[in-house]
């Protein structure tokens, strides 16, 4: 029997209850965007007790791909499985991922692990800051983690390739989840700019479900579902997670603009929004 899924986002109080009730089942992963400390995280005052540090660039992506695969191409399933077992993930684990940059890196981990076949993965809403703000301790101790036995594959989440992304962009249904400045510097022609951080409050928590759906233009039950993209599959993964929180399943263009722009045959638009003052190559 397949284990039931868990919420896309879990709050601090609920996580505390999970850890109290089933401590051996919960695996905590702190996702670092850049272990060297650039890009918004790196070393902090500590991590949640028991959390394993995971590097987004080398463990949730692969480094042997062509530029046209994007800046953050998906890891090989066998490599990801080896990493996940080193993190202590078991077949019955409930995995909670978090970060220190408003959930974007954690959402990449959530997406990759769901793509690899895990159903019990949640993002800690508000991340490390929310945990600390609730008065819970941090530690710099490295956890003693027994090797896991998880089995991972691929294909568990809907994806877009460049042609599918282009088709959605042409119909106005491709969302670029980067901030406005990155979008202006270059984007897929026709993509709409809907920054992921627009659904977050100042404490890093989500608005209500109706607000999230409205942010991405999914305002009715029969509204068409957009595809998500960004620069390299991080902010876009957060948008997928935010929509999944509302019950909407959206596909991700994993390669996103970093893959698109590496292909000289693909046109690139600049400027604020399609149809305004853009230049194309």
TrEMBL record:
It comes from the Bacteria. PROSITE patterns: RHODANESE_1 (PS00380), RHODANESE_3 (PS50206). It catalyses: thiosulfate + hydrogen cyanide = thiocyanate + sulfite + 2 H(+). GO terms for molecular function: transferase activity. InterPro entries: Rhodanese-like_dom, Rhodanese-like_dom_sf, Thiosulfate_sulfurtransferase, Thiosulphate_STrfase_CS. Keywords: Repeat, Transferase. Its EC number is 2.8.1.1. Residues 22-140, 168-269 form the Rhodanese domain. Pfam families: Rhodanese. Residues 64-83, 262-281 are annotated as: Disordered. It is an enzyme of class 2 (transferase). The keyword Hydrolase does not apply. This is thiosulfate sulfurtransferase. It comes from Pseudonocardia yunnanensis.
């Amino acid at each position: 029997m397949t284990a039931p899924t868990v919420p896309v986002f879990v709050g601090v109080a609920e996580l505390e209850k999970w850890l109290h009730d089933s401590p051996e089942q919960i695996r905590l992963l702190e996702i670092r965007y850049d272990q060297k400390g650039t890009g918004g995280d790196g070393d902090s005052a500590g991590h949640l007790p028991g959390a394993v540090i995971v590097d987004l660039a080398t463990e949730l992506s692969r480094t042997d791909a062509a530029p046209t695969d994007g800046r953050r191409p998906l890891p090989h399933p066998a490599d990801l499985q080896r990493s996940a077992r080193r993190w202590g993930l078991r077949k019955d684990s409930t995995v909670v991922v978090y970060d220190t940059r408003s959930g974007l890196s954690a959402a990449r981990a959530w997406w990759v692990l769901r793509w690899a076949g895990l159903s019990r993965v949640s993002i800690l809403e508000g991340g490390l800051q929310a945990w600390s703000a609730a008065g819970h301790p941090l530690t710099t101790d490295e956890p003693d983690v027994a090797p896991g036995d998880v089995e991972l594959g691929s294909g568990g989440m809907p994806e877009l390739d460049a042609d599918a992304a282009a088709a959605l962009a042409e119909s106005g249904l491709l969302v670029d989840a980067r901030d406005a400045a990155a979008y202006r510097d270059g984007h897929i022609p026709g993509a709409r700019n809907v920054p992921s951080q627009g659904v977050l409050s100042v404490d890093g928590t989500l608005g209500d479900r109706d607000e999230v759906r409205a942010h991405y233009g999914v305002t009715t039950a029969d509204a068409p579902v957009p595809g998500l993209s960004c620069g390299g599959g991080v902010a876009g993964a957060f948008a997928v997670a935010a929509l999944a929180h509302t019950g909407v399943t959206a596909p991700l263009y994993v390669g996103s603009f970093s893959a698109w722009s590496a292909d000289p045959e693909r046109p690139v638009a600049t400027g604020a929004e399609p149809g305004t003052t853009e230049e194309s190559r």
